[in-house]
Known about the structure:
The structure is a homodimer.
Chain A: E1 6-13, H1 15-18, H2 26-37, E2 39-47, H3 51-64, E3 67-71, H4 82-90, E4 94-96, H5 98-107, H6 115-119, E5 122-124, E6 128-130, E7 139-142, E8 145-148, H7 152-162, E9 173-178, H8 183-196, E10 201-209, E11 212-221, H9 224-243
Parallel strand pairs in A: 1-2, 1-3, 3-8
Antiparallel strand pairs in A: 4-5, 6-7, 7-8, 9-11, 10-11
Helix pairs in contact in A: 3-4, 8-9
Amino acid sequence: MTAAIVTASILVIGDEILSGRTKDKNIGYIAEYLTALGIDLREVRVVPDIEDEIVAALDALRRRYTYLFTTGGIGPTHDDITADAVAKAFGVPIDHDPRAVALMRERFPNADLNEARMRMARIPQGADLVANPVSKAPGFWIGNVIVMAGVPQIMQAMLDEAAPRLKTGRKMLSASIPAGMREGDIGTPLAEIARAHKDVMIGSYPFSNEGRPDTNLVVRSRDPQALAQAKTAVETMLATLRANGVGPA
Amino acid sequence: MTAAIVTASILVIGDEILSGRTKDKNIGYIAEYLTALGIDLREVRVVPDIEDEIVAALDALRRRYTYLFTTGGIGPTHDDITADAVAKAFGVPIDHDPRAVALMRERFPNADLNEARMRMARIPQGADLVANPVSKAPGFWIGNVIVMAGVPQIMQAMLDEAAPRLKTGRKMLSASIPAGMREGDIGTPLAEIARAHKDVMIGSYPFSNEGRPDTNLVVRSRDPQALAQAKTAVETMLATLRANGVGPA
Lengths: 249, 249
């Protein structure tokens, strides 16, 4: 029953996210995607377009988790420095990659293949390309780092390209249980259940149900039997509270 | 003209963000809010509900930036462990705080003030409270760390409460220039402008303009004169490209 656990991290690169000008849409997407694949997302960082900051974060995250996915900073302009930072982190040279140049030639006539666009064909030595079915300029995969675009539509297509090659672990299973009562009414008995079911993660998420405070309880485990037992314990607890008159606010 | 630069970081705490079950709405909001105040957001991390991970991230970020804002993990259930992690990071005791208990009593009758709800009155020693006008259970402020709820509506109210006490730096000014052309057509001359205007940050953000690739250029600086000069240089560059027949795709 000891299935390998595959972990991942995300590094979002871009001043525009930190200034608030652009609202990130990639973290949530990748998180959900990896969870569905059976990969545990364990950490996310957002850093500015500063090479030293990117390299430091790359090194911290790639050494700690099975995979590191980056988004942003692989376009044609001077502020796109992700590929250089990745080359620096891995200590490898970076130059125009013939495979990437060939892809760019499929899209752009010679006259349009200026210095700026050719920047997008600069790939660290030893990397595999990650195809970009949207706009050709590829992402890449080096070591355990998968480098993707920041534009959500392109990032999503690149993730689809990379996914079949990812190692995946035993899938995390989950059950969501609508409580129909306030979080504060559940917390004490729920903590007891959490203590009694150490191999299961139990999350409690308050939300507003048409203006009334309500709670979703989420039970997670890789072991279906452990999950079922904890789910039953939670449902029994909720039924007992209801029988004692606890209900919606 | 050497104005103090005030920096900040955000630590998002919660398994539900990393699993993708909940999509974070706080990072973008806080980013925009701090930028408007003249505070530079420099880094964001997202970590799970694991005490050692939270403490390590708290320590890394609070030592590096003027402020650290945390979201999540201060509710009434067993998975809400942010307050304990903050106490541990600062090496101070944590217990029910009479001020926080008094606030809770304003909202809840005695019968409802169970062990779970009383968890929300546990505050690290030496912290100031951050009022919660939405649902009473307060956030807190200790050292340079401001601890807020994860529910966006409550987080936003707490940020409003904390804001008047924040040091702010000289505001970052910015000008957005719609290019009306593809990023790859701009990259080369834009890089020259960036090299010639070192005191200005120039960002290039591609977007789809009713299906046609287009670009927004954003010039940022704390110095209005430097900003104006770089903006003029960008506008002149775009006019020259247009005169040479470069336009929308």
